[in-house]
Here is the input.
Amino acid sequence: MPMTANDPAIPTRPGQPLPSSPLYAEPDIALAAAGDRLAFERLYRLHSGRVFSLCARMVSDRNEAEELTQDVFVRAWEKLSLYRGESAFSTWLHRLAVNLVLNHRKTMARRRGRELDDQEQIDGRAQHSVHPGMRMDLEQAIGTLPPGARQVFVLHDVEGYKHEEIADLLGVTAGGCKAQLHRARRLLREALNR
Here is the structure.
């Protein structure tokens, strides 16, 4: 029976610790794949903080990141039977989260009717910039990056993906990925030095 984001068995806050939480691992994965909701809840609590952090960095909106985190775990519940153990569960879950965020971004762009290019994003974000004299922290600066540059930066510099892996995920060339990363770093330096 699939879980939904409103299901009481799934906690509403990502990263909420278990009352007494020993490190859960493979037995919970097998139990959850067999339909054990409590085992899945333990997996959720163990991994939701990292999934939320990834989503928050990629979309730069806390509410949207919380919704995406819930969506990732709903999808994980639905697809847990496909997990084969060829990589760590956290790696499988991480890849699921990245794919879901990227698909979400594409869907949102289609709903708007067109993709905004990076320059339009920069122009739009300029209205929300920090007042002169106030320095940004790194999280705020990452949030000001255009979506493409932000995703490449997060995937490469924060999550440790290689350019070729990012290129496959985003459907761009490795050279385009490197250019986006260079641009992201330049924009971050500018934002942090204001």
